Amino acid sequence: MINKRLLIKNLLAHNDENSFYDKKRKLNIGEKEGKAKFLKHICALANSNPQNNSYIVIGVEDEDNQIIGVDFFDDSKIQNLVNAYLANPPLVAYENIPFPHLPSDKVVGLVSIRSQSDKICSLRKNIWKYYGGTVFLRDGSISMPKVFDIEIKNTNSEIVSAIESHAQNNIELTLDGVFDFMNSRKDYHPSYKVFKEYFVVCWAGKEKRQNGETYYSRVDIELINEHVKLFYSELDEVSISLTDDQFKIVEYVQLGLHDTYQYYPLEEVVITFKDNAGYDIESKLLFDPPQFDRKTLYHLYNSNNALIDKLKNKITLSKNEEKDLVNLPATYLICYFNDFSEAKEKLEDAKPYLKVYNESVYSLYKESIRILRKVRYS
User: Fold this and answer.
1) CA 157, CA 134: separation in Å to the nearest integer?
2) What's the pTM?
């Protein structure tokens, strides 16, 4: 069992990026350029390492390897993105790894890449300035487009195997991880469970009961053996259930109009533990968007547009308009799910005005964008 925190330290000990490892200060796949560069590195690392894992470490300063961390990244659909843009795509996983010296809201991102076949990975279609059909390889620490007709040779297997073997977990690290978690999350009654006599999962969250059901927000879940972390914010609502070999999280979203909201299942994440000291983390989209009266939606859609125009022109909002602005991100989201095709664009265009206007409204905007991203890549 690989301790991912130790693995990151061992990768950083190599100091310089190379053909099986890359490091980034941050990752931005919300923009087309950032998405294209991310896919380029995935393609290059997969082609340069057809017989072993390769990695990208995110949240590290390039010059001195200082671990500064990044925000928690919850895009469980990253494999769908890779499959959409790459031919012969590798298996890709993004994991959030906590470090003791980082603030509680910061982690180090670890992207693991593993080729699935002996065929060359390439771009399936155009993105940003890269053309469909382009093949990338690692040239030292740089991902470069290549034109070649020779077989790719792998010389990294022994090095990567040695790095991974030095990152194996042990009882001391596991116990330290459990005690650290239980002490750091005393505020929300932390719990733990041992699965298959080997895996330890710790979790804690802010409990809320509604209509006889228990939901949690501000949830930390950590697979201690590997220091892999799942996190749900103050804005999230999840349920947690356990069996002897599974840990299941169902995330809900509250949607509605005129301050009348209901819970709708958004996504299910299941950690399944196996008898052979292995485990799988699988996610499944559950979302079935609510449908509303179109006349009502047209009225709200036009009202939203008028509010954004006022913000653009720096016109003071009335008390009622301020209240409507709080509902604006969710209303645009509902309009989009009810076939108002331009609602998504309108929501994205509103970002700079909502960000300047009010931090809480901007948080609601980010929540709506997060839901859109999850639905889109499914």
Assistant:
1) 25
2) 0.70
